[in-house]
């Protein structure tokens, strides 16, 4: 844990994990980067457009018995809409992404690319075509989507800077069992995420965002 | 103040608004962040709201749509409050129209409220793909039968906001599978396949939730509409089973017959009236059935007339009845025939306890041309009649009557259930009978 | 459905009760003569000749 003053506005900013070197200042929206030399400014983050997501910074929940807290968020856009990726910091210091799209939630964790069969690895990173199937750990996954996505804005702590206007290539995979995977490619850099659909009730979240006129559910 | 803020953060607003670039109307956005397309509720123009600057996709100048459940209406279904944010009129190429309301709750996501021919369903997008089963699909351990195959569904009209790019004329290929109360739907276009499950809901529930009134329910029933008779039928079968067991047990308990008197009488060949008295017959139970059986082994093409009088020695009260044993046989173009019986039984009901005599007045006769067993014209032949008096015995006739009376309403319910199921299945592409006229 | 089930239960109980009563009094609608059956005096019921 490292708390410093924002080099731009002086407001206190906290870095909770060494593996999350980026942070957007809550006050002035400066993109801060932590390094051995201290904390520097990498640019200015855009304002997040209004949405009615029930998740917010500080929302806590449990996934597969492990407690997490939401500490960051990236909002992405594709040709047919936008979605949120909420960064969840787990108790053991690892992190996962709680995706929120079309009113549905999905939890994914980054996984090393070399843990998947090399034959399928190439398919996923080079010529992913919608409708093609890929075997992941013996489970058949279908490529549901493969296209360029655009970063709109971000907040909180992040493993990357996520500048507004950042374009990456994203490939989505689905299985019949509710499992999903995602490959993100930015030039030669490739990240692989594996996870499944979840429901809010299953995560039993607390500290949800209060939305005017709506009763927030209480999960026992 | 600052402390209060951290304890209870300010509530985020639930909706924003945009201005329709076509008609200038103010259109509420109730699912901000999710909505991609808005069909203006005033002029029906299709707007792209995926980016901060609203873009006009298709311009329309229609009259304001009058929805049964207006946009923004809230209602509670299954314990969750939902707000109507969108509405689509869909059909199969213009025929078989239905309506779909898109419901939203920021904490629960989206659901569908589907209105079809006066019936309602509550639908949810699936995140899993149902597995294949015997001639159908399996989901969460339940089996669904294929009902509609290779249909097409088009969007005829839209109002409100949607989380995908929707427009009039959008067409998908559809398949549906059902089990009582639920339907699985598969919608496929060139790009993706989506699965949803909808649950049939009672019109009264929807009327109460959204404060509307709907017409009477659909007929034929919706494919996944559960038979309204099945719940009653199940309970009635249990009740009928208990009643039947009680009746059978009581009948067996009442059973156990006893022979009270037996006598062999000789029938005069001249056909004269004869009389005999059997007794004393002692009846011990407060009330009992008494049966008198007469058997004439040598009866052939003739008859024996019987009049029984059961007289209580103490009170002289009499029970009286007439019987006849007749037996005819012969041969004609169809071969041998016979009718009647060589025996006849008289049943006396509710005979009180006491000591009785049975007076048998009888008269035998036969036809000319009598043959076989015994020839009554033969002077040496003495036809005999055996009289047996018994009491008790299980009241099978009454028990059967009681069981039938109990079974009739169950049968009636079963017929109504079968008629409902037949009408429901008649709509299916996989209906068992294909010879029916299609209109 | 509740009312329907209740009514049928009532009906089944009624039939069962009537059956018990009939058994106790050895009554039967199929009997040739009952306890209170009128005596058909002077009526001759003859055989049905073919």
From TrEMBL, chain A:
InterPro entries the UniProt entry points to: DUF4178
Domain DUF4178: 57-198
Name this polypeptide is given: DUF4178 domain-containing protein
Species annotation: Sphingomonas baiyangensis
From TrEMBL, chain B:
InterPro entries: DUF4178
Pfam families, alphabetized: DUF4178 (PF13785)
Transmembrane annotation, as ranges: 394-415
Domain DUF4178: 71-202
Keywords of the record: Membrane, Transmembrane, Transmembrane helix
Statement: the UniProt record of this protein carries the keyword Membrane: yes
Name the UniProt record assigns to this protein: DUF4178 domain-containing protein
């Amino acid at each position: 844990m490292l708390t410093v003053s924002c080099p731009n506005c002086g407001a206190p900013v906290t870095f909770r994990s060494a593996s999350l070197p980026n942070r957007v200042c809550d006050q002035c929206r400066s993109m801060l980067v932590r390094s051995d030399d201290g904390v520097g400014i990498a640019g200015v983050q855009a304002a997040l457009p209004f949405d009615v997501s029930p998740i917010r910074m500080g929302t806590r929940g449990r996934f597969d018995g492990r407690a997490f807290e939401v500490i960051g968020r990236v909002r992405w856009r594709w040709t047919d809409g936008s979605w949120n990726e909420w960064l969840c910091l787990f108790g053991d210091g690892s992190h996962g992404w709680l995706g929120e799209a079309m009113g549905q939630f999905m939890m994914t964790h980054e996984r090393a690319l070399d843990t998947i069969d090399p034959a399928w690895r190439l398919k996923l990173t080079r010529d992913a075509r919608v409708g093609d199937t890929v075997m992941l750990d013996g489970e058949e996954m279908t490529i549901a989507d493969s296209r360029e996505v655009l970063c709109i804005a971000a907040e909180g702590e992040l493993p990357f800077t996520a500048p507004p206007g950042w374009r990456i290539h994203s490939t989505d995979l689905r299985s019949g069992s509710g499992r999903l995977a995602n490959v993100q490619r930015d030039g030669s850099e490739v990240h692989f995420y594996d996870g499944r659909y979840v429901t809010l009730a299953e995560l039993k979240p607390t500290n949800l965002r209060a939305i005017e006129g709506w009763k927030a559910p209480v999960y026992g | 103040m600052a402390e209060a803020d951290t304890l209870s953060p300010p509530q985020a607003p639930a909706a924003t608004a945009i201005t329709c670039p076509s008609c200038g109307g103010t259109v509420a956005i109730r699912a901000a962040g999710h909505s991609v397309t808005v069909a203006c509720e005033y002029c029906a123009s299709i707007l792209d709201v995926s980016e901060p600057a609203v873009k006009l996709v298709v311009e329309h100048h229609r009259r304001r749509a009058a929805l049964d459940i207006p946009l923004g209406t809230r209602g509670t279904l299954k314990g969750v409050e939902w707000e109507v944010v969108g509405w689509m009129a869909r059909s199969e190429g213009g025929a078989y129209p239905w309506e779909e309301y898109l419901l939203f709750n920021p904490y629960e996501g989206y659901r569908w409220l589907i209105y079809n021919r006066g019936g309602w369903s509550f639908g949810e997008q699936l995140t899993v793909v149902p597995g294949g089963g015997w001639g159908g699909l399996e989901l969460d351990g339940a089996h669904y039968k294929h009902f509609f195959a290779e249909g097409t569904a088009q969007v005829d009209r839209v109002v409100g906001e949607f989380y995908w790019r929707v427009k009039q004329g959008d067409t998908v290929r559809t398949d549906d599978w059902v089990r009582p109360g639920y339907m699985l739907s598969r919608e496929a276009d060139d790009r993706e396949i989506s699965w949803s499950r909808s649950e049939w809901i009672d019109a009264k529930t929807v009327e109460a939730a959204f404060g509307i009134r709907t017409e009477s329910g659909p007929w034929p029933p919706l494919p996944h509409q559960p038979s309204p008779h099945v719940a009653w039928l199940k309970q009635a079968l249990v009740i009928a089973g208990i009643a039947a067991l009680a009746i059978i047990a009581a009948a067996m308990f009442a059973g156990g017959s006893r022979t009270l008197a037996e006598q062999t009488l000789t029938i005069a060949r001249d056909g004269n009236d004869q009389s005999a008295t059997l007794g004393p017959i002692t009846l011990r139970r407060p009330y009992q059935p008494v049966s008198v059986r007469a058997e004439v082994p040598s009866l052939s093409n003739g008859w024996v007339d019987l009049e029984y009088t059961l007289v209580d020695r103490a009170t002289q009260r009499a029970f009286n009845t007439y019987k006849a044993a007749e037996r005819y046989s012969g041969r004609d173009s169809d071969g041998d025939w016979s009718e009647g019986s060589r025996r006849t039984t008289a049943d006396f009901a509710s005979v009180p306890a006491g000591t009785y005599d049975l007076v048998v007045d009888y008269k035998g006769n036969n036809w000319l041309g009598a043959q076989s067993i015994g020839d009554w014209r033969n002077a040496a032949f003495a036809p005999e009649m055996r009289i047996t008096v018994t009491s008790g015995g299980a009241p099978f006739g009454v028990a059967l009557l009681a069981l039938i009376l109990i079974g009739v309403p169950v049968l009636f319910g079963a017929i109504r259930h079968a008629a409902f199921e037949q009408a429901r299945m008649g709509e299916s592409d996989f209906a068992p009978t294909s010879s029916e006229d299609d209109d | 459905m509740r009312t329907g089930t209740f009514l049928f239960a009532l009906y089944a109980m009624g039939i069962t009760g009537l059956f018990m009563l009939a058994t106790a009094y050895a009554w039967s609608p199929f009997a040739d003569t009952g306890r209170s059956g009128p005596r058909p005096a002077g009526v001759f019921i003859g055989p049905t000749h073919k």
